[in-house]
Amino acid sequence: xxxxTLEPGMIxxxxxxxxxxxxxxxxxxxxxxxxxAGLWLLLAIAIITVAVxxxxxxxxxxxxxxxxxxxxxxxxxxxxxxxxxxxxxxxEWGQRTGLVTFALVPNRGRVxxxxxxxxxxxxxxxxxxxxVIAAVxxxxxxxxxxxxxxxxxxxxxxLLALLIGALWGFAFGLALLNSAFAIVAYFAVPMVVSxxxxxxxxxxDKLLWFDLSTSSSKLFDPAGVGGEEWAQVGTGMLIWxxxxxxxxxxxxxxxEIK
Length: 258
Description:
Elements: H1 21-34, H2 36-59, H3 66-94, H4 98-104, H5 108-141, H6 152-176, H7 179-199, H8 204-207, H9 212-217, H10 227-254
Helix pairs in contact: 1-2, 1-5, 2-3, 2-5, 3-5, 3-6, 3-7, 5-6, 6-7, 6-10
């Protein structure tokens, strides 16, 4: 429709271009910082990470190396980053903003990809904060060999472990489309599976292929991860991340927006 045939009060959008993926990712990042829940969660991740490392530095009787501080940071981040990923993917459905989002960007798949990219960026940013904190506190701790066992592959494995947790939360959020249910499921399901794995010793070797929480925790071992352990992590990701992602993807594509 040309501008000359527009009725009064109508807007010509025929020449409008669809937003780029970078633009969509930026919008998703801003959504987390514009809401109180998202902003306080981001602040909590940064503050708790600093507080945990500082407390260990003050009250620990040992001279802590770099890897110790990095692992201290991974504890709160491993808990809070998946919650952030859940909120990121469920906010359209919990806050009733889906009609606006999917009206402006009708291709729902592009929105989901942008949300996934935004969640990944938040994990990387949190990990960089953890690295900076560890690098600052390590010389203060005064360990004899503070950089022992520090290697590129190990640093990548820690980042991968944090990404797995965030993707797990994202997948559950996408499948359930409800913040409360997804958060409860994310914490309850791995706990139950890990308890069964620990108690049922006769089938422990087989259950490790389903227990992503236990298998991914081995990524924090400085000694390294073997081929079978990598296979267990991959199998667990297929079950607890890929499958819910696929189901959630189809659910979002077919869901009625109200």
